[in-house]
Every structure is written in C-alpha cells, then in structure tokens.
Amino acid sequence: MAISVALRVGGFAIITVLALRHSSPAHSETEQTSKSWVYVFGASLALYFVVGAAFHAQITTFILYMIGLVLLVVAATASVSATDQDLRKGVVWALGALLVSSLALGALVPALGFEGGRLRGVLENANTLGFFAFLLGCAALTIVDSPRWRVALLLLSGIILVLSASRASSLALAIVVLLLVLRRGFARSIIIAVSGVLVLGVVLLLNPSLLDPFANLLRMNDSRSDSTATALRAFETSPLIGIGVGNESSIIASSPFRALAQAGIFGLVAVISMWIILLIQGLKSGYKTVTVAIAAIVHSVFEGWLLSPVSPLLAIFMFFWIVVANREKSDSTGRKTRTNQTNIDYQIKLRQ
Are 172 and 299 in contact (CB under 8 A)? Predict the structure, then answer.
C-alpha cells in the first residue's frame, strides 16, 4: 500500500508543477476568497488523517497521505487562478479521451475491458469509470457551449454509464439533470417529465426487450449493506477515534461510513465539513456549481473517493468543480457588465 501511495504522490507532484506553471497571481478579492475554500477543505481532510492515521501510529501512511494532500491543495489553488479556457478544454478532453479509450478497449479486447459483465475500460473497476462518465455528463451540461458537442458528450456519458452499470454515478448525473431542468420552471419540468415517462412506458410496453441492455444498471442486488455493517462494527469498537486507516475487515465503499469506521466521530465531522464547504462555496458561485456539489455529495455517500487526496477521482473532481465555478462567476460578471453598460447607454440617450 505504501509503495502505491508513494507512486501516486509522485504523480501528483508532476501535476502540481504543471498547475503552478499555468497559474497567475490573483488580481481580485473575489479570486482570493475563492481560494479559501480549498484550504478549509484540505484542513477537514487533514483532520481525518490526523485521527485515522497519526493517532493510530500509522506514521508512514500519515506522512504519505499528508504530502499528497498538500500537493493537491497547491494544485487546486493554482487552478483557481488558471485561464478558464485552458482548464475547461483540459478537463473535457481528458475525460472524453478516457471514456473513448475505455469504450474502444471494451469493444476490441472484451476480456480486458469488461469485468463481471460490466465495462471497466482502462481503469481498475467499473465504478471508477462510471464516476468519470458522471463528470463528463456534468461537463456537457455546465461548461460546454456547442450544442452538438453537448449532445455528443452526453451520449458518450450515457453509453458508458449503461455499460459500466454504475448506479451511484447514474443517480448523481440524474440529480444534475433534474435540478438543471427544474431551474427552467416547475410547471414546464413536470410536463416534460410526465410526457417522457408516458412515452417511455408505451415504448417499453410495445417492446420490453429494449430493457435488456440496462439489465446490469437496473439490477436490484444489495451491494452496500455488508459494507455498512462493517463500518458500524468498527465504530462500535472505537467510536471516538475509529480503528485506523485500512484496518477494517472489508472494504467500506461509502465516504462517511469509511471515515466513521477509520477515524470515529472526528472522521464523520471531517466529511460533513467537506460537504458543507462545497455547498457554501457552490452557493457563492452559482446554481450550476451548487448543483454539481449536491450530486457529488450524494455520490460520495456510496463511494469513498472523497477521502483520498492521492486518488485521481478527488483530484479531477476538484479541478472540474473549479472550472464550473470559474465559468459561472465569469458568466455572471459578464452579464452584470453588459447590464451596467446598457443602463449607461440608456442614461446617455435620455440626456441627449
């Protein structure tokens, strides 16, 4: 485990150097404020490692993860100041390339690309691929301007979610779609939803075999109760500081339950703190940003990516979320500028 974490830390060191090269000094109070959430977010995650690793004498684990956390915070703060267009293109192209290559591997070498009937592509498991499909779907809905590219990326995301059968990622993307649709008007949203359900119902009634490709995604098996039971047993053993990072009897998928087991009450407080930070900063940035935050929080209840600063899942999510926030703030500033200019022009015309 230590070797794996050390290699990941080295990878993040390279990413951090590249992020610093493309960053620029903050030029406004707003930009400086937007960086503060990264520090608070990092401090919350640090609390989890202090209690879950240092308090249990896991010094090597603590040092490696803390180095990774520092690098992640530095890279994230640098990304806040990076050019919006560079970040936006980088995130979309990276996610798109990852999903396309995974789809190609599954088609060309099914023995490698599929595991247990689920597409995992070039990644370790299907749920990880599903997470990145969720992010690409979010990107299509929030930061992609071209209608054609938006549709193409959403289609790619949907195909990957179906083939990977990742229920948590599908639910998270559905939340984003629902909240963005509701923003356009409740009555209109209800009409669209009811119409869609009726059409879908009629189509499936006429041809039930259309559901066959969705069999894995719509599976009803319970794959989380054992994980939850493991977390609760560990919490009962040591409710205050937990049993330590990686000391659970089996893998605990959920971020809050994993934190509760490994770092006790302090671990749960750390996770809730990170959730609150995302929501508060999302509200400051705009509707799309807080929508992505809500979906990510829901996803983290089912998966443990929120607790690993050396995992590509948390890092890419943070970079993507920063892109969404920067873009929404930029659009808001542009609208205000145009409105003010219109008012000035109108006043000038009145005086003339």
Answer: yes
Structure tokens at 249: 């009897």
As given in the structure block, the two tokens for residue 36 are 């503060």
* pLDDT above 90 (res 334): no
* Parallel, antiparallel or unpaired: strands 114-115 and 118-119: antiparallel
| CA pair distance 304, 247, nearest whole angstrom | 15
pLDDT at 180 over 80: yes
Distance CA 292, CA 323 (A): 11
Task: List, as one string, the DSSP characters of 68-81.
Answer: HHHHHHHHHHHHHT
Question: In this structure, what are the phi and psi dihedrals at residue 115, rounded to the nearest 5 degrees?
Answer: -140, 120
Q: H or E element: which one contains 228?
A: helix 225-237
Where residue 346 falls among pLDDT bands split at 50, 70, 90? very low
Q: Which two tokens stand for residue 264?
A: 């006790």
Classify 115 as helix, strand or coil: strand
Residue 337 tokens, joined: 């500028």
Confidence of residue 35 (pLDDT cuts 50, 70, 90): confident
**Residue 25 CA neighbour count, 13 Å, CB half:** 1
Mean pLDDT of the chain: 81
Tell me how far apart the terminal alpha carbons of the chain are, to the nearest angstrom.
75
**Do 246 and 190 form a contact (C-beta atoms < 8 A)?**
no
Interatomic CA distance for residues 33 and 18, integer angstroms = 23
Buried b (16+ CB within 10 A) or exposed e, 132-154: bbbbbbbbbbbbbeeeeebeebb
Q: State the CB neighbour count (10 A cutoff) for residue 56.
A: 20
**Could you tell me the CA-to-CA distances from 168 to 64, 161, 293 in Å, in that order?**
29, 10, 15
Q: Can you say whether the dihedral through the CA atoms of 166, 169, 173, 179 is positive or negative? A: positive
When pLDDT is cut at 50, 70 and 90, the band that residue 351 belongs to is: low
Band the pLDDT of 221: cuts 50, 70, 90: low
